[in-house]
Amino acid sequence: MKLLVTGGMGFIGSNFVRYWLDKHPEDEVVNLDKLTYAGNPANVEDLRDRPQHRFIQGDAAARRWIDRLFETEQFDYVVHFAAESHVDRSIRDPGRFVKTNVAGTQHLLQASLNHRIKRYVQISTDEVYGSLGPEGLFSETTPLAPNSPYSASKASADLLARAYFETFGLPVLITRCSNNYGPYQFPEKLIPTIITRALRNEDIPIYGDGRNIRDWLYVEDHCSAIELVLLKGEPGQVYNIGGRNEHTNLDIARRILRELGKPDSLIKFVPDRLGHDRRYAIDAAKIENELGWRAVENFDTGLKKTLQWYVKHTDWWQDILSGRYRQLLP
Questions:
Q1: Full set of structural domains in the chain with CATH
Q2: Burial of 290 (0-12, 13-18, 19+ CB in 10 A)
Q3: Hey, how many other C-beta atoms are within 10 angstroms of the C-beta on 209?
């Protein structure tokens, strides 16, 4: 098979490319990435000599270019990760998120329809559901109620994907995951921010009172779930993917500091983010029962692996923090 993976130089995308090639070495993966600030060629440096992996720099929001790419490459499957994904950035510049996450998705859907793609997986987020109270879980039937420009753009993309299934019969599948963590995550996100700042003995900013709760999913478990959805999922369906690991931001910061032997005094509370959702939590029963998926890592094992990776790969994140990684870009 020939897969197009968009956003394959980013955190989850690069992990998925590596996971797929390890599990399906006979397949060809075309890695499409615009190489914005979060796209990093170092994320797939270990794949440089694998002939089954090929990188193409390009923009999913460039409609004519995307159509020519599909005509030339003749893909079987599309897995669409590429997105602007940082909430704070979406508050500062909502229009950029609409262009990439909504228009870019529509162009990919249309190209997939025009060129008879066998399966298209839209990678989404639990943030499209909005905020939970202290009880309950997000299910696939929870109404969409996004609260940030980022989550609104992702919800819009999901609805476009659904429309292409309902109207045109494009075999679309949608996945919505909880917060991912693991190797190669850009340092602006919560867990790598805490790790890298703690390793440098710098203050660790925590929004508000630190009691915001997220469900955490180790990135390789997410990749295995996407694999199952792509191969065995039912087109037109939504599959929630969660780790059943709910923790407050403050608890995570304290746990990481304890593992690294650093004091809690590094934690500094800062004014809360605008529209900051209080709690997310995923009900993953559908993918577990229908497709037989199970997360391998609990939060203890996944966090230990993540900490070990960041401690071992200081050059990777130091290059990002210094901006040197941009010198690798074509």
A1: 2-272+279-328 (3.40.50.720)
A2: middle
A3: 11
Query: Residue 330 pLDDT more than 70?
Result: no
Residue 54, beta-bridge partner list:
30
> Whole-model pTM above 0.90?
yes
User: How far is Cα 178 from Cα 241, in angstroms, rounded to an integer?
Assistant: 6
The DSSP line for 167-216 is: HH---EEEEEE-EEESTT--TTSHHHHHHHHHHTT--EEEETTS--EEEE
Give the model confidence (pLDDT) of 111-132 as tens digits.
999 999 999 999 999 999 999 9
**Torsion angle defined by CA atoms of residues 70, 72, 75 and 81, in that order, rounded to the nearest 10 degrees:** -50
> Exposed (0-12), middle (13-18) or buried (19+): which is 72, by Cβ within 10 Å?
exposed
Query: What is the pLDDT, as a whole number, of residue 329?
Result: 65
Q: Which amino acid is at 329?
A: L
Cα 157 to Cα 140: distance, rounded to the nearest angstrom: 16
* Residue pLDDT, tens place only, 169-225: 999 999 999 999 999 999 989 999 999 999 999 999 999 999 999 999 999 999 999
Q: Provide the annotated active-site residues.
A: 126-127, 150
Expressed in angstroms, the distance from the first to the final Cα of the chain is 28
Neighbours of 226 (CB within 10 A): 24
